[in-house]
Amino acid sequence: MRKVLILSALAGLVLTTGTGCLKDENFEDQEYGLQVAEVKGVSFPQKLKSPVVVGLVSQAASQTVNGPLLALDANEPPSSAVTVTLQIDNSLLAAAGKVAMPVGSFSINSLTVVVPAGTRVSDALKITVPNATVLDPSQPYGVGFRITAVDQGYKIAANMSTMVIAFTIKNQYDGVYHAEGYFYHPTGPRLFSEDKDVLTVNGTTSEVFLGDLGTAGYVAHFTVDGANNVTIVTAPGAVGGPYTMFTAGLPSSNPGYTNSWPGGPQCNNTYDPATKTFYVRYGYMGANGWRVTEEKITRL
Known about the structure:
Largest sheet: 9 strands, antiparallel
């Protein structure tokens, strides 16, 4: 009686960012895949991880990332090259919670994939995005792929014949940073030092915890302009708003502060692209006066 073994072990085959041919020893040794001797199959080995997420930076420079790869399943690797034909199928996106990339915003090196003789896994397709600034980082973009044809007597594995590549779009500031600074407070002033995430809102705006109060709901949006000046506003729904920038110096009243931290004079609400550092001074009015954070926030 013929039977098909579910391809549960394929989760070990991971999409990488390299350009070489991807290998999987378990697949090559036929520890999983179609286990019917007289049937030769082709599939997306990443199907079990679909949608597979790749990252883009929101910038005008061209970026190329890896798309799907193809795998052959047979007792022996092919003695001659096998050609597999794909098509883009964005009808797959809704079920994956994704939306289609805008027309003209990407290209694919080829929808005809060749698995070389003597191998079972193809190189990954290459997806090129010439200008990611046209994309909205808040949108869950994706591209759907479907296998439509294969030669050399191979069959398309129906339940492994589609997959989705998804995109995360990060601005150039997105990453993990170390913040050191001073929190001016009428009754609880303090030095602080902590790591914090700078998260993409859009191409020029990022979400950042205020001082050492982020876990209490104090969150700001930093927007960097063409001259690397930083505009700071309260993030939607954040605590303590509105936030006020003190670019020229600390507030002189309510209750008024003098510098208490050597790094304070640098904090003029600017961004240094050379060192990937934000220098910020801003705060909010509390019940008994201003609370102000001075911070040097440097990417790790």
